[in-house]
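Fold this sequence, please.
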Amino acid sequence: MNYFLSHRNGTFALALAISFGLAMAGGTSARAADQNGGVPGDWLSRYAGARALGFGGAFVATADEPLGVVWNPAGLSQMFQNGVHFETAYLFEGTSINAFSFGVPARWFPSFGLTVLSLRSDGFERTNELNESLGSFYEGEMAFLLSASKNLSPRLSLGANVKVVRQTIEEFDAAGVGADFGLLLYLTPTLRLGTSLLNVGGPRLTLRETDEVYPLEIRGGLSKNLFSDRGLITFEIDRRSGPGVSFHGGSEFWVHPSMALRLGYYDDSPTGGFSYRFPHGIRLDYGLSDHELGVIHRIGLSFQFGGFFASSEAIPPVFSPIGEQSVTKFHLKAKTKASSSNWSLEIVDKSNQMVRRFSGKGAPPAHVMWDGKGESGLSLPDGLYSYQLTVEDQEGRKFTGPKRTVEITTSGPQGTVPIVIQ
């Protein structure tokens, strides 16, 4: 990992200048919540998905999922597996917001993504000059983002969105095009800097006669992994022309390999949420935030598949070193972004102490056999053991497979045998 710790020169200074100098330049700090009325594209600028909302909207230095392109398109390069994400939220007075996002990581070519966001408000009353009701109409806005991201080095990636926005109010509608640019830089293996420049060159919409242009927005932030990647803290500074500067921050902790809790701060309100991982790459996200009109709830569902991964499976999952099934076979699979450098399969007991380790250079073999013995060569006691495959590529990326269990049992069937006296 020496490439993370060296070359701290003009690249770092430039990235820091982009992230924080631009975000703070040109005006004093102002609460966006107090000054955003009527700003074009405010719904999109203030959008926060269920997971990002738990971070208080501070996602520019994380952005490690398909929907992350809304904050920073460079985050697509952090994805290792294909991802599909759905999201929905009901706001107030007949207003709802929905999202769909899809991302595909690539090895040699840029990673690509497609995101669709929609906002709809119903129940607006239409009247004539005499204030007589003529029925109702709705207001709707949609944004389409076509994204690409490329690693220039193992620690630096760049990304861009082509953004198409459409707005409909009654019988009027308009569309406009703009662009977003993002940068993600690993200062150390656990510390990331992210920055993005949004709404470059638009979008510009003309519903009737007056042009409305989405204001230029600059975002910058840092995120740091803690507790062997079980925890994450992040903060972000956003600046928009008009609303001014806003601050966000949040934290995440995986209390269990399947469940994470989050707590954050968005402008002047607390936020929170959680995620739960189901088998086969499915994850449920929930986020909530306080608002002067009430509590806002957001729900997201994502599915990861294919792409780059590491995986191991013991067959049979229960074996007896002194029985007919005296060994188990670990089937190993891995696909890495760069060529594989080394691999390891660790087996731990119920106290999380490693009892056996298989490892080697290059790509993992198709399988390894285990006879239920520890590193010392002695047989291990009966019980459940956890195992996990980790593969590192030549550019320092680590691919960790799901943790699974295998059982050793040397005792026979348990129970009582009834005795019948005749």
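The first helix runs from residue 2 to 5. The CA atoms of residues 56 and 264 lie 4 Å apart.
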